Amino acid sequence: MSNKPRAAMHASSPDTARLREKVLDYARERMEFDPVPLDTPQTETYLREHAPNTVNSKGLGGDEALRVFAEVLAPACLSTDHPGYLSFIPTAPTEASTLFDLVVSASSIYGGSWLEGSGAVFAENEVLAWLAREAGLPETSGGVFVQGGTLGNLSALVAARHTAMTLRNGRPERWKVICSAEAHSSIKAAARVMDIDVVLASPDANGRLHGQAVRDALKTAGDGVFAIVATAGTTNFGIVDKLREIGEVAREHKIWYHVDGAYGLAGLLAPATRELFDGTELADSFIVDPHKWLFAPFDACALVYRNPELAKAAHTQHGEYLDTLTDGGAFNPSDYAYNLTRRVRGLPLWFSLATHGTSAYSDAVSQNIETANAIAQVIRERDDLELVREPELSVVVFKKKGWTLVDYDRWSSKLLESGVGFVVPSSHKGEPNTRFAIVNPRTTLKLLVKILDTMKDD
Ligand SMILES: *Cc1c(COP(=O)(O)O)cnc(C)c1O
């Protein structure tokens, strides 16, 4: 009997060693670009023509598969870390975090249980503890890194409802969650999955939710409200709700308080905006996405609970093959969200934090906020442009006077074609506008001004 695996693709050979070097070289080159090409989307017809039959019985061989990726597929993916990528929420991983994502990939660590991943889970928990401290939650708080804010919000709401179920006698006719009309779409998505109702509270003219509006919503909602969600930095405008007021209303009514800070909660790290987050410490749970404004690669959401035991009661999966983990009493990250098998997706952020220190994070977030304020000032000074709202964190929404959606679309396509920037049209109250979401410290004021200069009628 030979010791060689029969499955050739698991055997080490000069070929696999060479491919290893080639793929690592590719990754190195991708990291060395400054700036990385922005690239462009392609049609399916184009991709089918240029990358035909890649999945077949014989395989292409690594060289050819890598060539197809490097020459055809990768250029058809936008580089979300390009300094001119300013749409939606970009990403701007530090080199340390990207490097460590490679290490996570190479390490086959099971992140669901302490038994299997204690070292990595310990490191992830150090990061969660730092975030909890910054937010003002007690030392006994804890949680887990999940795939994204959507899953983080769902997991927190499931824990909240489970807690309400165990506390009250009898079920309400409908379970309800209160959030702002400007809350992220993922709250509504979670409500559909959970078959619960969303009661919308009205924000003020600037899009900020106040305690009084939550009180009003509680009155209209009637029975069955188990959670109140505040947004710490709306995705569209970066507006932070009145976190303390809303938290106090939640406390008064003994209702779970969840703070959705997927994008904005990182603003807590900047001295200039820290005050806006006053009251986060009242939260029963919060989320913040490292892949948005904490300079980590896709994908990661930090989900933190004031009392992790409540989340564990809601989320632990029981099964014969899992009992040995569950009964051991150790800290198993899987128990704290709607997930089981998990990548240790908090580890890239841990490595970068351990490398650079938390002050470097405050500096980077502060820099983005300064850049946002500086470009907002340029917009104020230009007669043809107008701010839609005063920026609060690092999102700047503005319009070009007289432009219709057609004008924005035409300009946006040209800008992408030129490789300078990716800035898509948006809208507010039916009026088209556009927006810069600035989370990349490589995004300079100079580049933003250059992009403004391309907004011409022609
Ligand atoms: C982006 C965002 C989400 C969703 O997070 P994903 O990681 O995209 O799933 C939720 N809430 C807010 C406020 C966000 O900005």
TrEMBL record:
One GO CC term on file? cytoplasm
For activity, the cofactor(s) needed are: pyridoxal 5'-phosphate
Supply the alphabetized keyword list.
Lyase, Pyridoxal phosphate
Give the record's GO biological process terms: amino acid metabolic process; carboxylic acid metabolic process
List the GO molecular function terms.
carboxy-lyase activity; pyridoxal phosphate binding
Q: Which InterPro entries match?
A: Aromatic_deC, PyrdxlP-dep_de-COase, PyrdxlP-dep_Trfase, PyrdxlP-dep_Trfase_major, PyrdxlP-dep_Trfase_small, Pyridoxal-P_BS
Family recorded in the similarity comment: Belongs to the group II decarboxylase family.
Protein's UniProt name: Unannotated protein
Give the species this sequence originates from: freshwater metagenome
